[in-house]
Amino acid sequence: MALPETHQCSTCSDGAAQDTVLHQDLVVGAPLSMEDLTDAQRLDRFARKYAHDGCEVREVRRVPHDNLSGYAWAVSFTETA
User: Is the per-residue pLDDT at 42 higher than 50?
Assistant: First the structure.
């Protein structure tokens, strides 16, 4: 899956309480086979990718995007360090 090794969230702030702020990454370039997975399977696949950063994925949804496939995946997560 073409995801970054780590994610950067511009809305993160020092001193913010854990599990109180929901962040979102936009993932462009995930394989088209993601479309064939169920919602639960997509959630699990992204959750494993984000787990190394101490984050918990809450939602994965397809969103329109101006790229070759015409869409991207919005991944909502909270930090759970």
Answer: yes
